[in-house]
Amino acid sequence: MPEFSHAFSGCAAKSKLTHSELVRSVRFMIAAEYEAIQLYEQLAESTDNEAARKVLLDIAREEMEHVGEFRRLLSVLAPQDEPYYMHGVKETEEALEEIGVPVPMCSSSGCKQ
User: What's the pTM value of the predicted model, to 2 decimals?
Assistant: First the structure.
């Protein structure tokens, strides 16, 4: 779980971020966005107030966009990590296909079954 007690917990004291610190910070921000999504969705599911539900779910979707933005930034900052992510995608697709779960084809324009 991300720790929010220090805004730059991955930063060297009193200096600009090194490249590796920036990469770690972006990974941290991705985790924080996922945590926010969880919190907003959980709160929306915990109320009958339709106005609150609508706003909370909209905010959760915005956080999902932030994940995409940070994820894209991470792919630029740490391109050496991409083969690992793609290998994980391939392994998951193979496992899903083995049990007959349709795997959508995704691109930047969306996913299709």
Answer: 0.77
